[in-house]
Inverse folding.
């Protein structure tokens, strides 16, 4: 763990730059999601929850986050984050899931903490937004069961629509995959992300 001052000082300067850049990125993500939330809640959806995808759980306030058994990776909850909105009316239910993926070069491992040294090169990766659109002609719906079944459908990550059956009820799924680098303005966000979703919400 020891380093020479001439090596550590420039590295810490990079850390400071990285955190400042992350604040700008997080502000952009928050503004984008706020705009999206306003659009879909105006169409009758309600925000349900949010959470990280790349860590098991957020660090607990009453337990040290720096213990050896805790991954430093747990301090990166916004690296991959998911937000969910739902709507349920008589005979029809919808669920919208937005995943903001900071780095598609992330590589999962089963034998320990993720190691960025093993990730795909950042210049060959992307920052993406994935929008999942679920609908079912029923008021009571088990979205988690439908999502689990979807993973067994070949090509489920493509646009769709894809159909899965839960309890004899057909659940339809569609997916948008957007490159965040193309969302340079809020007009672009509305055109590429919000309009397709609001058009989908207006379908019978």
């Amino acid at each position: 763990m020891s380093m020479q001052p001439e090596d550590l000082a420039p590295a810490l300067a990079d850390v400071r730059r990285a955190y400042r850049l992350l604040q700008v990125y997080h502000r952009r993500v928050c503004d984008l999601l706020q705009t999206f939330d306003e659009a879909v809640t105006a169409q009758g959806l309600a925000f349900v929850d949010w959470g990280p995808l790349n860590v098991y759980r957020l660090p607990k306030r009453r337990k040290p986050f720096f213990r050896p058994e805790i991954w430093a990776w747990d301090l990166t909850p916004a690296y991959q984050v998911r937000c969910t909105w739902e709507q349920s009316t008589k005979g029809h239910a919808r669920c919208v899931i937005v995943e903001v993926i900071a780095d598609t070069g992330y590589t999962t491992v089963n034998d320990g903490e993720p190691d960025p040294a093993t990730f795909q090169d950042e210049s060959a990766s992307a920052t993406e937004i994935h929008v999942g659109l679920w609908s079912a002609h029923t008021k009571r719906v088990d979205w988690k069961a439908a999502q689990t079944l979807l993973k067994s459908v070949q090509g489920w990550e493509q646009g769709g629509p894809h159909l899965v059956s839960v309890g004899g009820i057909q659940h339809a799924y569609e997916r948008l995959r957007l490159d965040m680098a193309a969302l340079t303005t809020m007009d672009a966000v509305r055109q590429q992300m919000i309009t397709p979703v609001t058009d989908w919400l207006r379908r019978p």
Observations:
- The longest helix spans residues 5-41.
- The mean pLDDT is 92.
